[in-house]
Protein backbone atom coordinates (compact mmCIF):
# COMPACT_ATOMS: atom_id res chain seq x y z
CA UNK A 1 0.00 0.00 0.00
CA UNK A 2 1.27 3.47 -0.89
CA UNK A 3 2.32 5.71 1.98
CA UNK A 4 1.35 9.28 1.12
CA UNK A 5 3.16 10.52 4.24
CA UNK A 6 6.59 9.51 2.89
CA UNK A 7 8.70 12.00 0.92
CA UNK A 8 9.25 10.43 -2.51
CA UNK A 9 10.37 13.27 -4.78
CA UNK A 10 14.03 12.22 -4.48
CA UNK A 11 13.46 8.65 -5.68
CA UNK A 12 13.65 9.43 -9.39
CA UNK A 13 16.81 11.49 -8.97
CA UNK A 14 18.72 9.48 -6.36
CA UNK A 15 17.91 6.08 -7.88
CA UNK A 16 19.08 7.22 -11.31
CA UNK A 17 22.24 8.76 -9.88
CA UNK A 18 23.05 5.49 -8.09
CA UNK A 19 22.42 3.46 -11.25
CA UNK A 20 24.47 5.84 -13.41
CA UNK A 21 27.29 5.88 -10.84
CA UNK A 22 27.38 2.07 -10.81
CA UNK A 23 27.37 1.84 -14.62
CA UNK A 24 30.05 4.51 -14.99
CA UNK A 25 32.19 3.03 -12.22
CA UNK A 26 32.06 -0.43 -13.80
CA UNK A 27 32.73 1.02 -17.25
CA UNK A 28 35.67 3.10 -16.04
CA UNK A 29 37.17 0.12 -14.21
CA UNK A 30 36.83 -1.99 -17.38
CA UNK A 31 38.27 0.77 -19.59
CA UNK A 32 41.19 1.35 -17.22
CA UNK A 33 41.91 -2.39 -17.19
CA UNK A 34 41.95 -2.37 -21.00
CA UNK A 35 44.36 0.57 -20.89
CA UNK A 36 46.54 -1.31 -18.41
CA UNK A 37 46.23 1.19 -15.60
CA UNK A 38 44.83 0.85 -12.12
CA UNK A 39 42.23 3.59 -11.43
CA UNK A 40 43.91 4.62 -8.17
CA UNK A 41 47.24 5.10 -9.94
CA UNK A 42 45.57 7.04 -12.76
CA UNK A 43 44.03 9.32 -10.15
CA UNK A 44 47.42 9.88 -8.53
CA UNK A 45 49.15 10.56 -11.86
CA UNK A 46 46.35 12.80 -13.15
CA UNK A 47 46.48 14.93 -9.99
CA UNK A 48 50.22 15.33 -10.34
CA UNK A 49 49.83 16.19 -14.04
CA UNK A 50 47.27 18.90 -13.19
CA UNK A 51 49.78 20.59 -10.88
CA UNK A 52 52.18 23.12 -12.34
CA UNK A 53 55.46 21.90 -13.87
CA UNK A 54 57.53 20.13 -12.67
CA UNK A 55 54.38 18.17 -11.71
CA UNK A 56 55.29 17.80 -8.06
CA UNK A 57 53.17 17.79 -4.88
CA UNK A 58 53.73 17.01 -1.22
CA UNK A 59 52.19 13.83 0.15
CA UNK A 60 49.50 15.63 2.18
CA UNK A 61 48.45 17.83 -0.73
CA UNK A 62 48.32 14.86 -3.09
CA UNK A 63 46.23 12.88 -0.60
CA UNK A 64 43.78 15.79 -0.30
CA UNK A 65 43.49 16.16 -4.07
CA UNK A 66 42.86 12.42 -4.43
CA UNK A 67 40.35 12.47 -1.53
CA UNK A 68 42.15 9.68 0.33
CA UNK A 69 44.14 9.36 3.54
CA UNK A 70 47.90 9.91 3.69
CA UNK A 71 48.41 6.19 4.31
CA UNK A 72 46.35 5.34 1.20
CA UNK A 73 48.31 7.80 -0.93
CA UNK A 74 51.57 6.38 0.44
CA UNK A 75 50.55 2.91 -0.77
CA UNK A 76 49.67 4.31 -4.21
CA UNK A 77 52.95 6.19 -4.38
CA UNK A 78 54.92 3.05 -3.52
CA UNK A 79 53.24 1.17 -6.40
CA UNK A 80 53.83 4.09 -8.78
CA UNK A 81 57.49 4.38 -7.74
CA UNK A 82 57.96 0.63 -8.36
CA UNK A 83 56.48 1.09 -11.85
CA UNK A 84 58.78 4.04 -12.59
CA UNK A 85 55.85 6.47 -12.87
CA UNK A 86 56.81 8.82 -10.03
CA UNK A 87 59.83 9.55 -7.87
CA UNK A 88 60.06 10.86 -4.34
CA UNK A 89 62.41 13.58 -3.23
CA UNK A 90 63.09 15.30 0.05
CA UNK A 91 61.38 18.65 0.45
CA UNK A 92 64.59 20.13 1.80
CA UNK A 93 66.15 19.73 -1.66
CA UNK A 94 63.39 21.89 -3.14
CA UNK A 95 63.13 24.32 -0.24
CA UNK A 96 66.91 24.71 0.11
CA UNK A 97 66.73 23.62 3.73
CA UNK A 98 69.77 22.62 5.67
CA UNK A 99 70.95 19.08 4.90
CA UNK A 100 71.00 18.62 8.67
CA UNK A 101 67.20 18.76 8.70
CA UNK A 102 65.84 15.36 9.73
CA UNK A 103 62.21 15.92 8.77
CA UNK A 104 61.53 12.78 6.76
CA UNK A 105 57.83 13.64 6.50
CA UNK A 106 58.55 16.48 4.09
CA UNK A 107 58.55 14.49 0.86
CA UNK A 108 57.62 15.54 -2.68
CA UNK A 109 56.04 13.19 -5.20
CA UNK A 110 57.00 14.02 -8.78
CA UNK A 111 55.95 12.59 -12.14
CA UNK A 112 58.68 10.92 -14.14
CA UNK A 113 58.75 11.45 -17.92
CA UNK A 114 57.34 7.92 -18.30
CA UNK A 115 54.54 8.68 -15.81
CA UNK A 116 53.68 11.92 -17.61
CA UNK A 117 53.53 10.21 -20.99
CA UNK A 118 51.43 7.34 -19.64
CA UNK A 119 48.90 9.55 -17.87
CA UNK A 120 48.51 11.80 -20.91
CA UNK A 121 47.91 8.82 -23.21
CA UNK A 122 45.53 7.18 -20.74
CA UNK A 123 43.54 10.34 -20.01
CA UNK A 124 43.18 11.07 -23.74
CA UNK A 125 41.83 7.55 -24.37
CA UNK A 126 39.56 7.72 -21.32
CA UNK A 127 38.11 11.13 -22.22
CA UNK A 128 37.48 10.05 -25.81
CA UNK A 129 35.68 6.95 -24.56
CA UNK A 130 33.64 8.83 -21.96
CA UNK A 131 32.71 11.54 -24.47
CA UNK A 132 31.13 8.79 -26.57
CA UNK A 133 29.07 7.73 -23.53
CA UNK A 134 27.28 11.10 -23.44
CA UNK A 135 27.18 11.62 -27.21
CA UNK A 136 23.40 11.12 -27.28
CA UNK A 137 22.95 14.32 -25.29
CA UNK A 138 23.14 17.69 -26.99
CA UNK A 139 25.48 20.46 -25.86
CA UNK A 140 22.67 22.30 -24.02
CA UNK A 141 21.53 19.10 -22.29
CA UNK A 142 25.06 18.36 -21.15
CA UNK A 143 25.50 21.92 -19.86
CA UNK A 144 22.17 21.82 -17.98
CA UNK A 145 22.86 18.38 -16.50
CA UNK A 146 26.37 19.42 -15.47
CA UNK A 147 25.03 22.57 -13.78
CA UNK A 148 22.33 20.64 -11.91
CA UNK A 149 24.79 17.98 -10.75
CA UNK A 150 27.32 20.66 -9.70
CA UNK A 151 24.61 22.34 -7.62
CA UNK A 152 23.56 19.06 -6.00
CA UNK A 153 27.16 18.09 -5.29
CA UNK A 154 27.85 21.48 -3.72
CA UNK A 155 24.79 21.10 -1.50
CA UNK A 156 25.83 17.60 -0.42
CA UNK A 157 29.41 18.69 0.26
CA UNK A 158 28.13 21.54 2.47
CA UNK A 159 26.12 19.00 4.46
CA UNK A 160 29.36 17.26 5.35
CA UNK A 161 30.26 20.31 7.43
CA UNK A 162 26.76 21.16 8.67
CA UNK A 163 25.27 17.74 9.47
CA UNK A 164 28.43 15.69 9.90
CA UNK A 165 27.54 13.41 6.98
CA UNK A 166 30.62 11.45 5.92
CA UNK A 167 31.49 10.93 2.27
CA UNK A 168 34.27 8.56 1.25
CA UNK A 169 36.82 9.57 -1.36
CA UNK A 170 36.47 8.45 -4.95
CA UNK A 171 38.73 7.61 -7.89
CA UNK A 172 37.06 10.11 -10.12
How would you describe this structure to a colleague?
The protein has 172 residues and is mainly alpha-helical. It is built from seven helices and three strands, in the order H-H-E-H-H-E-H-E-H-H. The chain has helices at 11-35, 39-50, 59-66, 70-82, 91-95, 113-133, 139-163; strands spanning 56-58, 86-90, 107-111. Helix 1 (11-35) packs across helix 6, helix 2 crosses helix 6 (113-133) and helix 3 (59-66) packs across helix 4 (70-82). It is globular. The model has no long low-confidence stretch (mean pLDDT 87). Keywords: Plasmid. Residues 10-154 form the HTH marR-type domain.
Instruction: Kindly report how far apart the N and C termini lie.
Output: 40 Å
CATH class: Mainly Alpha
Strand content: 5-15%
Give the C-alpha Rg.
20 Å
The unreliable regions are none
Please state how the strands of the largest beta sheet are arranged side by side: 1-3-2
Q: What fold name goes in the CATH topology slot?
A: Arc Repressor Mutant, subunit A
Counting DSSP H or I runs of 4 or more residues, the number of helices is 7
Main sheet characteristics: 3 strands, antiparallel
Amino acid sequence: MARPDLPVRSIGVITRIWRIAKLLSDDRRHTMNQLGMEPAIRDLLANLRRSDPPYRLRVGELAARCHVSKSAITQRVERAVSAGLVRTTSARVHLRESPASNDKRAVWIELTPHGKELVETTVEALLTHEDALVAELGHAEIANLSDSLRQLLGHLEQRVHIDGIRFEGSDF
